[in-house]
Amino acid sequence: MEHSDPVNSTLTFIICAAILTMIFRSRRGKQPFIRRIPGLNAIDDAVGRATEMGRPMLLQPGLGGIDVITLQALAILAYVARAAARFGNRIIMPVADASFIPVAEEAIRESYNLEGRVESFRAEDIMFLSDRQFAFAAGVAGLINREKVATAFLFGLFFAESLIMAENANQIGAIQVAGTPSTTQIPFLIAACDYVIIGDEFYAATAFLTREPTLVGSLVGQDIGKAVILLICILGVLITTIMGPDNFLMNWFTPLWWKR
Amino acid sequence: MLRNMVDEIAAWFARSFPPQKGLTLWLILMGLIVAYVVIFFGLQLLKPRARKSLIAVVTFLAGLFYALEFFLPTELIDGKETNALTRFLVPMSEFAQIVAVLALGLGIYSLTMIHGKTLLRFRTGWFYSLTFFTFMILMATFGIMVEEPFSREAQINRDIRSILFVGGLQALEGTMFSIIAFYIVSAAYRAFRVRNAEASLLMAAAFIVMLGQVYAGQFLTNWLPTEGALSNLRIETMSDWLLTRINAPAVRAVGFGLGVGLLATALRIWLSLERGSYFDREV
Amino acid sequence: MSILEKLQTIDRRIVYLLLFLSVGLALIPRKPLPVIPSNQARSAFEAIENAPTDKLVIIGADWSASTRGENGAQTIAILHHLMKRRLPFAIMGFDPQGPELVAAEAEKLAKRYNYQYGTDWINWGFRPPGTINATLKAMVRGFQEGMKQDSKNIPLSDHVRLPMMARFKDINDVGVLVVVTPSQTFESWVAFVQGIKGTPLVFCPTAVMAPEAYQYLDSGQMVGMLTGLKGALEYEGLVKEPGRATAQGLALSVSHILIILLIVVGNLGYLAQKRRQKSQQGVG
User: Cβ A184–C209 below 8 Å, yes or no?
Assistant: First the structure.
């Protein structure tokens, strides 16, 4: 699709409006209840284990660059870094996109700063390894084995290299918590990691962790957006079953090239 | 009206900054580099609050271009759907490519710092840092060197590059990918256990899909007809049914959630509604 | 712990050795196994078989040497088909290795099928991966403006050295899109190239990436798909050009059977342990 059409614009507007409304409502203090995700509860346990063992923790934001997915991953990892700063754990964060280094450094330094431990922050532990997928995976696998990490947090965009990292961490007995929007990698992560957050839980994670009004509001807005899509799906099935495939709803959502 | 306004601005830019060649072009480029350095250090001098406000404004404007270009109504011009901003897609794509290339310098800087320190202080693993520098220099030298076709030097250059690229990089990357096969087998062997009804169901589905992917599996039900009701029991048909009728809707459902989550996160970043610099302190 | 129970904790090195031996030995016999093409491979074949010869085929080569086993075999099979039908094609990609690897295969086949560079095929080369959406958006509006030059730095406007570029201007001149990638770049191709005019798109992912793409087949955004090495094997059968994938068919079967056997063995151990624990609880 090169440009939007009226149906697409309307739907996007409705979902965006729902998200923004709920964010501002939540900021005004009307904060709704949200449940916790078991995989995210495990983060504190994993940090605690690294503290007990006195070994570093691996924070892995995936293969992405400065994009929405990797920034979301960084938001989750910044929470982990804050816990690490609190307990005095060393963190190692290899990245696959050089332009992401300053962003990651800033975020992790901020986490240490908030815990009043900025002097413990080691900029050299946030490192660029390679932007080649498997060279990067080999580098991370090497780090896991050399540093004998106690825990590994794999959050972000992963492809086939996910299993190389997760299996290496598994082999040295590290606790692993993972989350990715790459649906094809979830089976591999489930097989090799201790806790995995699935699907859009990845985007919900920061709200669960920080309980920030903006993020919680956004989460509720997202649910409204999903409900709208679900409603359209149900209506689509019902109307198409009754009226046949050539109906007004199908026509609304059919792109021009399909009609030709 | 918007189109006229944009056209006028574009025309003014074209008049004011005509294409340059030769020495003028080089002088302009040098001037831009100086300006870039001044701006870079100038930004460092800004107070954090002012810097964050500036980042918020730049983020919003950068995102606004693509949002407006996508959502503004279009009309057909020369058979292409066009609006006032469409003509800037190509320059924006070139701009994005240039910015992406700048990251290369950052990468080289980071790697040089890490491996340089290890090498100079003879820390554990200094040998790997030496290997890194050797191959970085070799790859860069033989990759960048200009080729004059048909000369002997060019042939030597091509041969060395082929050894490095085909014999080195390609073989190493292929090896790393093939390691996944070993990991998949060991992970599957360890993880698949018939602990409960759901796990057993999952395993049965996995067996059908795996067998459906290869002839050894298809051979098992080859005696069944390819047409009629009984054909549904052929292993490749069952596998296809699982992939297209069970897997695809599930992926689509997860995709809806991910799409809305992506939209919400993008919206928060675009409008700088996230807190602080990822994402703890109020801006 | 009984011997049966130990079956669930076989040393991973033994598992690796079993895989290495079974795949290695299965690569020795050269006799090809029969092929039953899937619906997705058949649709991909038909899309290229029915493509008009006066339109361009764009090959999006976003893969590298690491996935050559799967993506390389798929690409070669498709190149055979394109050249047999004398369809003009352009190669481009967002992985520095992809376009070069495909161009190398195309050059080999070009001699056999008498394909001329610049007249019958062209390599537009590599563009930075971070710019995929912007580049594709610009490319569909005009190849000369969006891509500027080929991999040998010849301007696409040089119609003397690249005569085919005089015939093909933009997305309206494209008959089929072939996207070969082990990553998610296919989503950008679907959104920003296929979605403009509904150009038929054939997708060639690695086997692990395929499950994510079936939904696009239902919606018509993709017309066909070659799933990993299996897809390449099926396509080689359809174009009647047995090659690398056909030679590896037996190894593919053996590796799958090995995984199934190992899972069964592991579960026998698990069930034995469970039974022992139950009987001990009964005695206690």
Answer: yes
